[in-house]
Amino acid sequence: MAGFDKRVASYAEALAGLTDGMTVLAGGFGLCGIPENLIREIKRLGCNNLTLVSNNCGVDGFGLGLLLEDRQIRKIIASYVGENALFEQLLLSGELEVELTPQGTLAEKVRAGGAGIPAFYTATGFGTDIAQGKEVREFNGRSYILETAITGDFAIVKGWKADYYGNVIYRHTARNFNPLMATAGSITVVEVEELVEPGQLDPDQIHTPGIYVDRVICGLFEKRIEQRTVSD
Fold first, then answer.
1. What is the CATH number of domain 11-105+152-217?
2. I need a labelling partner for 191 at 20 to 30 A (CA). Which of 33, 62, 83, 212 fits?
3. DSSP 8-state class, residue 174
């Protein structure tokens, strides 16, 4: 595996095998570190009835928001609605199934899935609607609810640099959910800004080892900003 070249030449090849009804894990936080070209390819493919797991769902007309336009998503597991008016509209109208999950709990559910841990207890959400229907146990005098792990058929991830073997480095806050998602997909696809030959990445700087990555592709990115704020 260490010498396996995981580069693919096209986005169609990168997402080969993605079909209707699958669960897709998407890295990113807002529009920071999102796999924007892989998202566009999902839109082009026209896959429907998808379950999407991501911190949020992009914005209107960009990022994961593109998949809402043609109603390609059946269910979203996310931590907040964010800046997406269509997401809000579909949620309130009942056209979109939404499972809102506390952000730290969402991260841990995905991390657990990638680590092969089926479930864990957390105090977050106890006594709220989040806890409805979930097992409750007490540890050291405090109540905890049982949360189950999350895995997916595909994980789509945005990195900064990668080598041909799929070892990935993320840049600054664009790391966010990406390393977690990369571990929890049956097929993990990473798009990066720069692909380098093996041996050119410092092993101590690698965030996602290539063992988790199935396909890697180099792309060009718009890197749009949700709320641009400037000062004199």
1. 3.40.1080.10
2. 83
3. G
